[in-house]
Amino acid sequence: MREIHHFIGGKSVAGSTGRWGDVYNPSTGEVQARVQFANAAEVGQAVAKAAEAQREWAAMNPQRRARVLFKFKDLVEAEMESLAELLSSEHGKVIADAKGDIIRGLEVIEFACGVPHLMKGEYTESAGPGIDVFSMRQPLGVVAGISPFNFPAMIPMWFMGMAIATGNALVLKPSEKDPSVPVRLAELWKEAGLPDGVMQVVHGDKEAVDALLHHDEIRAVTFVGSSDIAHYIARTCTEQGKRFQAMGGAKNHGIIMPDADMDQVVKDIVGAAFGSAGERCMALPVAVPVGKKTADEFVARMMEAAQGLNLGVSTDPDAHYGPVVSAAHKKRIEDYIQMGIDEGAELKLDGRGFELQGHETGFFIGPTIFDHVKPGMKSYHDEIFGPVLQVVRADNLEEAAALPSQHQYGNGVAIFTRNGLAAREFAAKVNVGMVGINVPIPVPVAYHSFGGWKRSAFTDTNQYGTEGIRFFTKIKTVTQRWPSGDIGDQAFVIPTMG
Ligand code: NAD
Fold it and tell me: What average pLDDT does this structure show over 418-445?
């Protein structure tokens, strides 16, 4: 059985806890590897190495740090095929989608290559007589990143790009479900010239996460995962006096106006609802057609489109999507489908019981569509995180827009329309953090920033972009005077600038 070890101090380190997690191949349902789970002592080892390495790394000028990022980007690009295969074999997403996962992460690395410019401070000459004021951005020290299973390359690279470029050392605790790509990325950082200890990977579960949250040397924690855990991270970091980002779950809505281009809408929503088996925090699992005519046409066309989808093993180039990540997650999704039926929603297409010939033990679920879903239903309120599309009908834009605005999650939302004014007003008023106008998955590009609202993010700093630079640095402001030699009077009042 393949074993996945920690990456500490620039090398693979076998843990000694005797605790392991199973890593599956979701296409076959078989355990393909086991990953070590760290305890507090092992986390402590990684943090100590990080603290040592960080001082030297922070002292290196930002242009030289950026060169390591450029090199890392080249190495990842050169290894795209094998990284995508590794990713897809543990996650279950198809190869083309796995490449997208890697490329969206690389875009943040690319942005972070601009760190010499991005870290520049501000300067005011002669803020008072002979007095200049300037500010500088300095790294925090050792920071921790905790990532979810659904983007095993992109999300670790969000953390890596921003934390490392700004002169911090990062201890990453990736998802235990698909931990191999983060380890390979750590090896590539080393090959790119990153000093040992600046980027480390420690595997584990709650025990390793808690050790990071309670370690005095960890100055900040960036987390992406489900909302209850994100909330726990936020509470614990607050108690521990640590800076944090804590992104949570989602339930994104797509509003379809009667004037929308239905051909485009169907293409967009079939991909956004079922792509990656719905396991994306920016998936579109709720469609809100406005008016009966729009709803009837949309549901009929979606049924046709969904029934035409190919499910396959993650290496099948003709598959639109692959299996979900685990047997437990498959069961959870199927339970939500049953809940939807019990709550009185109309099940139009049932993906349960789907079996892929030759891969009967894989974790597959066919596309599922519910019509006449109502806001009071628990299956609507909760995040399902599977290939399940719920249609909630609305009579007008006001009623439609209230749904995402009032939902517990507020990650992304989309509106499909040809009416610019309606779209503009919707974007301004909706109570959600990321908005798409005729764009189903509005993940902001790397030089903007990513973050939801409400239970989708317990934080006020977004991921990456200039928000990421702010999160991973602290500002120091210097007020300087170079006296001419004349001794000034004693001052017993707070100095003002006249
Ligand atoms: P998860 O919350 O189960 O796990 C996330 C991380 O937290 C993992 O590293 C895991 O090991 C760790 N963890 C799990 N239980 C813990 C506990 N009790 N205490 C401390 N740490 C714990 O999430 P997941 O299933 O890996 O990922 C899917 C979730 O992530 C979905 O809810 C999805 O919407 C969300 N997500 C959000 C975003 C975003 O940016 N908002 C992006 C991607 C995924």
Answer: 97
The answer, yes or no, to whether any atom of ligand 1 lies below 6 A from the CB of 149, is: yes
| CA angle, 338 then 344 then 346, to 5° | 80
Q: Are residues 244 and 335 in the same domain?
A: no
State whether 58 and 192 are in the same domain: yes
Burial 389-406 (b: 16+ CB within 10 A, else e): bbbbbbeebeebbebbbe
Whether the CB of 411 sits within 6 Å of ligand 1: yes
pLDDT value at position 496?
A: 78
The reply to whether ligand 1 has any atom less than 6 angstroms from the CB of 326 is: no
- CA–CA distance, 198 with 8 (Å, rounded to integer): 9
Query: What is the percentage of the chain residues whose pLDDT exceeds 90?
Result: 95
Among the atoms of ligand 1, which is closest to the Cα of residue 225? 30
Distance, CA 205 to ligand 1 centroid (Å)? 11
- What domain range is 309 assigned to? 253-437
- The pair of structure tokens assigned to 44 is 């402590």
List, for residues 124-137, the tens digit of each pLDDT value: 999 998 899 999 99
Q: Is pLDDT at 362 greater than 90 in this prediction?
A: yes
If you measure from the C-alpha of residue 224 to the centroid of ligand 1, how many angstroms do you get, rounded to a whole number? 6
Number of the ligand 1 atom closest to the C-alpha atom of 173: 9
Substitution candidate for ligand 1 out of 4, 147, 149 with most atoms within 8 A of CB: 149
Asked whether 7 and 36 are in contact (CB, 8 A), the reply is: no
Inter-residue contact 160 to 170 (CB < 8 Å): yes
Looking at the fold, whether 269 and 243 belong to one and the same domain comes out as no
Pocket perturbation via mutation, ligand 1, pick of 91, 205, 229, 232 by most ligand atoms within 8 A of CB: 229
Rounded (to 5) percent helix, strand, coil in the chain: 40, 25, 40
Q: How confident is the prediction for the chain on average, in pLDDT?
A: 97
Return d(Cα 296, Cα 58) in angstroms, integer. 59
Query: CA-CA distance, 16 to 19, in Å (whole number)?
Result: 8
Domain total of the chain: 2
Instruction: Enumerate the H helices of 192-347 as residue ranges.
Output: 206-213, 227-240, 262-274, 292-307, 327-342
Percent of the chain at pLDDT above 70? Answer: 99
Rounded-to-integer distance, Cα 302 and Cα 389, Å: 10
Query: 3-class SS at 219?
Result: strand
Tell me the catalytic residues: 281
ipTM over 0.90: yes
> Taking Cα atoms as reference points, which of 199, 162, 195 lies closest to residue 182?
199
In a domain, 447, yes or no: no
Res. 354: pLDDT tops 90:
yes
Quick one: 294 and 408 in the same domain?
A: yes
